[in-house]
Amino acid sequence: MASADRDLVRAIVEKGIALGGRRDTEYGINVHPDDLKTIHVDNRPLSDYRIGKLGKTLDRNNLGGIDVDGEPQLQISAPDEDLGWSTLKDFLEERGKTLRELICDLRFKLLD
C-alpha cells in the first residue's frame, strides 16, 4: 500500500476512534463515508472518489473495504482478532509512540 494510502488509513482509524461509540469494534473501525469528509488530503476535504478508491485498495489487500448494504460504512479491519485499533493506539501512546509511526513508517518493532 502506498505511503499516502497508509497515512489516510491512519487518519481514518484516528477519526473512527475519536467518534467513539460502536465505530471501533473487534472487527475493525467502521465509519460512514460522510464522517470522513472532515479529513483533509492535500489541503482539501476527502472526496467521495478518494474514499471509494481507498475502499477498493483495502478490499484488494484484504484489509477492509466499503460495505454499501444498508447504511454505507468504510471498514478498516482490526490488526488482529484479539487487538482492536483503540487498544493498539493506547498501547503505543503509553510508550510515547503513535499510530503514524506504526502505520505510515511501518515500524512494527514498536509492538515488541
Q: What class, by secondary structure content?
A: alpha+beta
Biggest sheet overview = 4 strands, antiparallel
Q: Please state roughly what percent of the residues sit in beta strands, choosing from under 5%, 5-15%, 15-25%, 25-35%, 35-45% or over 45%.
A: 15-25%
Roughly how much helix do the residues carry, as a percent range?
40-55%
Query: Spans of 5+ residues with little confidence (pLDDT < 50)?
Result: none
Total domains, how many? 1
Instruction: Give, in order, the helices and strands.
Output: HEEEEHEEHH
SS element count, helices? 4
Global geometry: globular
Enumerate the strands of the largest sheet in spatial order, edge to edge or round the barrel: 1-2-6-5
What separation lies between the terminal Cα atoms? Answer: 23 Å
Q: What's the SSE blueprint?
A:
Layout: H1 3-19, E1 24-25, E2 28-31, E3 40-41, E4 44-45, H2 48-60, E5 64-67, E6 73-77, H3 85-94, H4 99-103
Antiparallel strand pairs: 1-2, 2-6, 3-4, 5-6
How would you explain this protein's 3D organization?
With 112 residues, the protein is an alpha+beta fold. It has one domain (3-106). It has 4 helices and 6 strands. The chain has helices at residues 3-19, 48-60, 85-94, 99-103; strands at 24-25, 28-31, 40-41, 44-45, 64-67, 73-77. It has a 4-stranded antiparallel beta sheet. It has a two-stranded antiparallel sheet with strand order 3-4. The two termini are 23 Å apart.
